[in-house]
Structure formats: structure tokens, C-alpha cells
Amino acid sequence: MRDQDLCNALKELTVRYMDALQDSLPRGGGLPTRLVPKVEFDTNGSLTVGRESKPDFGLLAATTLIDFVNDKVNEALIIDLLRHEGIVNLLKDKGVSIIPMAFAYNILQPMITRQLVMQNGIQFNEGEFASNYRAFEEYMNSEEDRYILSAPLSNFTMESDIERIGPFTIRKLNADEFAAYNGITADPDSLARSISLPHLEFVLEMPTTVKRGSPALTQTNQECFWWLVAIMKLTKAGSVGYTTIWGQPLSWSGMSFGVGNAYPRYTVVGRPYILQNQDLPGLRAHWEIVETFSVGRLHSGQQLFSDSAMRSIGFELMRP
Questions:
Q1: Is-contact 292 257, C-beta < 8 A?
Q2: How is 104-167 classified by DSSP, letter by letter?
């Protein structure tokens, strides 16, 4: 922890926010909740879908935000924080004004939401705040945003649950991801609607780091996804594809996004693509060829391949 004064100031705001949330709840009332799907697989791989209620900490943090900032004591604490060089630089990198509401939306609300999730309730937890603050301070001083880029694979299955090829990971979806990517919601009829297309079961992922405030899905990153799926098709027969690349922030702050079709499931014409363990050496060797011709460009944001490099890659990949 580098800045104890900043830590103390943010802790005071967080404690006051928890008190304000407690005062905002109806007498005898509980936390706001939302219904979410509960997906379970039995030992035979059969799917069951139910519903469960979970606290809606994002909604809880948002409902009190404006009233909290408009309180004179809280506003004065925030104005003092807006003199901190790191806070100022962070807000400038996000392209917002150095004013209390910009601080509230871009720093305070994410910090409060994280705190509520980490402590699983309104009761302030000192240890969880220390972890929360350390993550924020690291982010504030890093000048970087970290994301995981994900593309659910259609018409695809794999012998293993997880494999790594170059910067990519191919892995089986967990229950929550399975529900999200396959359009399964808390609506009891959503499962019946979802079976009109084959279920997505695996996702292709790649981490990326960009300058704070910069777009995470560069042309280079999109080309990397395209090339890996292309060499998968060259490695063995079978149809495989994706329609959408999703971005999820790994750093303290950032926005989730999706580029492509908003509904990632579609019908692939052709036989299913089954990646077996015996196929992996060939797939990794093909990716090494791609990397060889993209040295210095793979994560630089430049065009990944020149026309001559494209021809050379094609020649090498087709070599017996």
C-alpha cells in the first residue's frame, strides 16, 4: 500500500456509504434481489435448469449514489480526493471531467459494488476493503487496462476440458457461462427455446493489455482469433466458427463489451469439429508458424501480416 492518506479517505467514504445503504433499506426489509438461472449437469451430462434468487449488489450501490454525493459532508470528502494526482490522472484517462459526479460514477460506484460483493452484504469488512483498495491503487498506478477476450465456439467439442495454444485457452464453459451464452434465463421457458440450436459448450479465450482507456479489441486481436480458427480447420476436418468476441475487464475497472452478433449461437453447416488430444501437436505447430511470421506485430496494434507474409504462411501451412 503506497498511499495511506488515499486509503484512509476512500475507507471513510466506503464506511459512510455502507451506513447510507443500511439507512435506505425499508424497516425489516432485505437486500434487493434478482432471479438468475441455475444450471446443473449430472454425472451423465444431462442438463437441468432451475431458478435462484441472488442479491443485486449493483442495483443496491446505484440506488443511493446521487443522494450520497449530494450530501454536503460526502461532497467535501470527494472534492478533497479530486485534488489527488492519481485520481485526476485516472479520470482524465477515462475522458471525463474532474467533478464529484464523474468521481462517483467512475471510481466510487465500482469500488462500492466490489466491496458489497466481496463482503457479501452491507456490513463493512476491514479485510475485504484492504484487498479492494490494493486492487484499486494498483490499477490507478498502472496506466493499463487488462481484458480477457472470449469467443464461444459453435459446432465444437473437445476431448479435454481445457487446452492452451499460444496465447489462447480453449476451455469448457462453467454453468453460469453456459446459461449466458446459450440464452438461458430465469424464464422457465428459456430452456425450451434454447434447444432450437445446438448448445455452445466451449470458449476460445485470449488475455490482452492496452493503455488505459484504449479499445481492447484491436484489429490485431481480431486477426489472431481468425487465424487460430483457420488453422483449426487446416489441422483436421470439421466445421467450427464463432460470431462474437466478448471482452471482460480483468483490471479493477473497465467495461464489458461484445463485437459481432449479439446472439452468439448459429447453425454451422457441416459435421461437428471434435478436437482430440492427438490433434494438439499439429495445431500448436501451425500456430507457431503464424507467430513466426508475425514477430513484433502480434501485440503491437499494427496490421498483423503483410501480403508477402500471408503468402508465406499459406505456403508453410500447406507444406506436407
A1: no
A2: IIIIIHHHHHHHHHHHTSSS--HHHHHHHHHHHHHHHHH-EEEEEEEEEEBTEEESSSEEEETT
pLDDT tens digit sequence for 51-73: 888 899 989 999 899 999 999 99
Say if pTM beats, i.e. exceeds, 0.85: no
Helices (H) and strands (E) in the chain, counts: 13, 10
Residue in 285, 279, 206 with CA at minimum distance from that of residue 242: 206
Q: How far apart are the first and last CA of the chain?
A: 56
The upper half-sphere exposure of residue 299, i.e. CA atoms within 13 Å in the direction of its Cβ, equals 8
Q: What's the rounded Cα separation, in Å, for the pair 6 and 85?
A: 11
Residue 203 pairs in a beta bridge with 152, 171
Q: How many CA atoms lie within 13 A of 136 on its CB side?
A: 25
Q: What is the pLDDT of residues 94-119, one digit of tens each?
A: 888 999 999 999 999 999 999 999 99
Domain boundaries, the chain: 4-142, 145-318
Is the pLDDT confidence value at 257 over 50?
A: yes
